[in-house]
Structure prediction request, 435 residues.
Amino acid sequence: MRLSYDFCVHHTRNGPTGFEPMKRYSAFAIAREALSGHKNWERAWRNAQPKSRYDVVIVGAGGHGLATAYYLGKNFGITNVAVIEKGWLGGGNTGRNTTIIRSNYLQDPSAAIYEKARSLYETLSQELNYNVMFSPRGVMMLAQTEHEVRGYLRTAHANALQGVETRFITPREVKEIVPIINLDGPRYPVLGALWQERAGTARHDAVAWGYARACSAMGMDIIQKCEVTGVRQEGGRVTGVQTTKGDISCEKLGIVVAGHSGDMAARAGFRLPIESVPLQALVSEPIKPIMDCVVMANTVHGYMSQSDKGEMVIGGGTDGHNAYTQRGSFHHIEETVRALVETFPMVSRLKMLRQWGGIVDVTGDRSPILSKTPLEGCFINAGWGTGGFKAIPGSGWGFAELMARGESSLCEEFSMWRFGEGKFIDESVAAGVAH
Ligand SMILES: Cc1cc2nc3c(=O)[nH]c(=O)nc-3n(C[C@H](O)[C@H](O)[C@H](O)COP(=O)(O)OP(=O)(O)OC[C@H]3O[C@@H](n4cnc5c(N)ncnc54)[C@H](O)[C@@H]3O)c2cc1C
Prediction:
C-alpha cells in the first residue's frame, strides 16, 4: 500500500493493534503538555525489536540511513523497512559533525546532489513536523592565495551554470559580513571569498531524530543496539543479515555505515576503494554573538561558526593516519587553533571547552559512492568523507530511488565502478577541506 505523507506524520503504530493517531508538534501542543507538567509527551519513535523478515534492511541509523528509509516510504510506498543500528540512533558522524550545509561544489554531479539536499533542508522542519533548526546564515570560503582566487572564481562560474546561487566577493565585502576578521594576515591575506548566502547550518541530532520519528510513524522499525555481523547470500544475491539480535531476511539491503563502510563491504564479500580516517572538532566557551555566518579557511585548514549557545564551533583537516578511534587529541587543537589565529586573532583568547572525533570514509576523488554492488540486491551509500551532513536529504532521496527502481539520475555518476573506469568526480582539487 502506498502511504500518503499526511497519513505518515499523523499516525504511528502503537503495539499490535495497528496505527493510532500521532500527536503533531505545535505551539498549541507545547501549551497543552505544559498543563500536565510535560509528563505526557509520547515517545518520538518506537524502540522496535526485529521481525524475521523485511522488504528492505538498512544498516546504519545515521542521517543517510534514516533519510533513505524515509524517502523509500514517502516516495515509493515501501514501508516494510528496518533500520539497524549497532549503537544509538544518530550517534555516529551525524551527531559529531560541525553542521555546515552548502552546495557550492565544482563538478556537476556533486552540485546536483548537494543542491537537492540544500533545497530540501529549506523546508525539512515543516515536512517532518520537527524543528531541525536549519539556519541559512551563509557560508564563506576564504580565498587566501592566488590559486584559491582562481579556483573559487571558476567554481562561481560553474555554480551559475548549475543553478546554484554563489558569488565571489571582495575583501571589503568579507569585512562587512565578518567584522572580526583580519584581512591582512602576514602569510595568508584575505583576497576574496566564495559566498553562498543560502548555505548555513542545522541542528545535527534533530535531523536524525526528525527522520527517525517520521520513519517510525510510517511503521518502519528502528532497531538500536543491534550490530550487523554478517551478510547472508545465495547464488550471488543478498538474502538477509546476521545480527547480534538474530538473523533477519530481506529482499534488498542498503549499507549506510560511513566510517565502517570498508568493514561492512568485506562482510558482504566485496572491496571498496575507501579509507577510514578520524576527523575532529572542538568548541569554545560560549561568548556573546560575534559572527553570524560560517567561515572556512581551506588553505590553512580551519573553519568556524558560532552556535546558538554562543560557543565557537571549530574544525580542521582529518588526522594523518587511518584509524577507528572516535576521540579527540591535543595535536589537533593546537594545529587548528594555530591555523585560525592569523585570520581571527580573537581565537587566541578563547578557552576551549570540549573536543571530539568521528570516523569518516574517504574516497580517492573525495566524492561519495551511491551504488549497486557486486552482490545483487545489496546497495552501498558511503564515502561522504568530511562533508556528508549537508547531503543527507539529497542522498536519502537519490539512494531510495536507486534501491526502489534500480536507477537514479542523482546517483548515476557515483557508482563504485567509476574508479576502475577512470570516471572520477574530482572534488579534491576544488577544496582542501570538504565540509
Ligand atoms: C568532526 C566532524 C565534523 C564534520 N563536519 C561536517 C560538516 O560541517 N558538514 C558536513 O556536511 N559534514 C560534516 N562531517 C561529515 C558528516 O558528519 C558525515 O559525512 C555524515 O554524518 C555521515 O552520515 P552517515 O549517516 O553516513 O553516517 P553516521 O552518522 O556515522 O551513521 C552510520 C551509522 O552506522 C552504524 N554502524 C556502523 N557499523 C554498523 C554495523 N555493523 N551494524 C549496525 N550499525 C552499524 C554506526 O554506529 C553509525 O551510527 C563531519 C564529520 C566529523 C566527524
Observations:
- Confidence is low (pLDDT under 50) at residues 1-19.
- The first strand starts at residue 11 and ends at 13.
- The CA atoms of residues 270 and 374 lie 7 Å apart.
- The longest helix spans residues 146-162.
